[in-house]
Amino acid sequence: xxxxxxxxxxxxxxxxxxxxxxxxxxxxxxxxxxxxxxxxxxxxxxxxxxxxxxxxxxxxxxxxxxxxxxxxxxxxxxxxxxxxxxxxxxxxxxxxxxxxxxxxxxxxxxxxxxxxxxxxxxxxxxxxxxxxxxxxxxxxxxxxxxxxxxxxxxxxxxxxxxxxxxxxxxxxxxxxxxxxxxxxxxxxxxxxxxxxxxxxxxxxxxxxxxxxxxxxxxxxxxxxxxxxxxxx
Length: 232
Known about the structure:
mainly alpha; 3 strands; single chain; 2 domains; Lysozyme
């Protein structure tokens, strides 16, 4: 039968948060084990000092959806690092209640809570992107089915030399509609960050195409496939 050895991080009087080492037989904590736990606490304390200073990213309703999603994913990656560090070392935080403010255990507890909240928020942002920016997704999927693969590179051997991506955009189309649709100030900035459409995600390609459709182009840049799909 596997036993679990729990070592208090905080003062015994607190009795709220523990690092748990899973497996093995129960042993009295020796100096080496205490040093390992102490190093874990110091690391958490240094990297994730307090929730008040951990992140200064302000995400509001006015933040463009794609930028909001990017910021949320960045913060989520940061908040996941603590749990990843402990998981790599077979440690697990046992948390019954909120630890005292200012302790390493509180910092870890706060990041776990924030990670759960961010995962819900990212889901909501993704829904808003689909609703507000991507238009009729089945329609774009139909056009894509008759055009090319999402990562079609016009310059690859045997390709057409003119159109990139799964919706076959030429450079004029990409440079005209790409920057405003994806939140860049210029084509040079977009190109430096993401390259041409064959390097964009399918979501980004659909967002650019939908932006063009809403700004007067309709489905006419895809005259044949749009007809096949019953869109014009």
